[in-house]
Amino acid sequence: EVQKLNQQLEEKNGEIEQMINQPPYEKEREILRLQKTLAEREKAQATSDVLCRSLTDETHQLQRKLASTAEMCQHLAKCLEEKQRKEKGNSDDQIPIKRSNEVLDNETSLQALICNLQDENRMLKQKVAHV
Length: 131
Known about the structure:
By secondary structure, the protein is mainly alpha-helical. It has helices at residues 2-21, 24-89, 97-130.
């Protein structure tokens, strides 16, 4: 193992000697290549930082939208429950057909709205998970 390490050390020393003995223009070319590589990596890092900030901002925005949508769904669910309780309380009374149809239409539209909000909520959760 020591011999192996000594051999690797000799190889590295040989590479160093080669670099030292290179003509100055090749050294400069290597320096320029390394500087170019460094500049590219710095640019990639800056781009990555900007994208991370952008995704973080979008994530926060989606989380806020998701929270407000969830609140709206809860509010609509409570309203629907109250209406259903009121309708059950009034079920003993005879409701005119016109009023019954209006209640059904309102209930249908509320349920459609709830379904739409649930779909939007699901989509927002997927976006947040994706981000």
